[in-house]
Amino acid sequence: MQKTKAQNFVPGITTPEQYLPLASEGLGIIHDATMDILKNTGFRFASDPVLNIFKKHGFRVEGEQVYFKEIDIRNALETIPQQVTIIARNPKHNLVLTPETVSFGIGRGAVTMVEPDGSHRNGRCEDFINVAKLAQSLDSIEHWGPLIHPGDMDIINSSLWMTKTMIEYLDKPYNYRSAADIDLIALSLGVSKQDMINQAGNGNSYGQSTIMALSPLTLTTEACQDLLQFVECGIAFHIASMPIAGSTGPCTLPGLLVQQTCENLAPIVLSQLIRPGCAAFYGAIGSHADMRTMGTVFGSAEARLFEFAGGQMAKFYGLLCRGNSGLTDAPVSDFQAGAESMQHMLNVTRAGINFLPGCGLMGSYMGASLAKVVLDSELINYVRRYHTPMTLDADSLALDVIRKVGSGGEYVTQAHTLTHCRTEFDTPKVFNRLPYDQWTTGGAKDATDLAHKEALRIIDQYEQPPLDSEIKKDIDLYVNKHWKI
User: What structural domains and CATH numbers belong to the chain?
Assistant: First the structure.
């Protein structure tokens, strides 16, 4: 059987309960509080078609507010699969996601590029393309996201341009920015929207999508429309519930977790009313405000605690989970950026969160950096090695060589060392391990400078993945037809 990505290590190391954000009884307390809010306060859906679906299934609906019974939530959760294969244009990049797997990908939504010297500028089309080349070339990056918005592309065509460019430069799993992308992505994958509809529910999803919940407790008209179409086509979706403690959510982490859980469960229940068996991910991506400035914080210890608790709730409900990885509040690539990014990656893997965009982001989601993509890739390699169990056999235990060397000997010249020295230890491509004098002789470049240089090297050596000529012709025709002049 062909091996697919995201199968090469097992996350979610067993942690003593006293070190978990929620003990066993805590999961039940959050659940009961969530059921109380959904039953008595309800959730707002700003869409008549969605409200009619709830009415048809016997839910209490008052205006745009829908009220949930626990039995209806439990019934919906029973139909959600715990495994989904995200189909890529190149089958070798298909992602099989289960509760035991973790997959890292590119971040989303930045508006400024951060240069190696720390200066910021508006994102450009060339930046978008360069990030796509990095994402395609780096093995540790397994799925795509629009890291940087191209500010030099006119707004009415930017979404169409980004989707077309994503298809041209990558054959890894695609991201739908909205349901408007379905027809074009379907073309690129050699299927039609009707094919997607006919095949929905077979455990496969043509790419992956996001449904944005508007905190507090709302799904907008646009989000409802997107959800209806994604579910109809069997496209796996992640709930982007991002309540911010102190501004759009309660100023306590337990209260925030209750709201986040409500904002996940309500749309997920809707998806199962439309098409039972559609893949849906719990989104554990909220955070808190810095109450001095009201800016949103993503690199704090509280953000990590809250994120881990969200992962626990996802597992409590038997749901796959979407988080983020490598986030930092630092506006430049410095010690803070590295510390927060590594803390983040270790936390989400320890929590067993399954789908992790975020690579390349800086400055609380606002900034993007080519160097940061490479640095995050380096961190992913560290984390994967960190979570790789030791193999215990006669060769790895090395008893023969230990006996041979005995007391006071050396291992440098032993055949066992020569056999293992190139494979037992990972060698970083960017992080420096040279003594000070050798480092200064080599130009005294720090990790950011080296990572930017490595990014440029990868971009220069990038090889564009093949795209069937007939499919490319259909894509060009579609884009020309929908391009607004």
Answer: 1-389+426-485 (3.20.20.480)
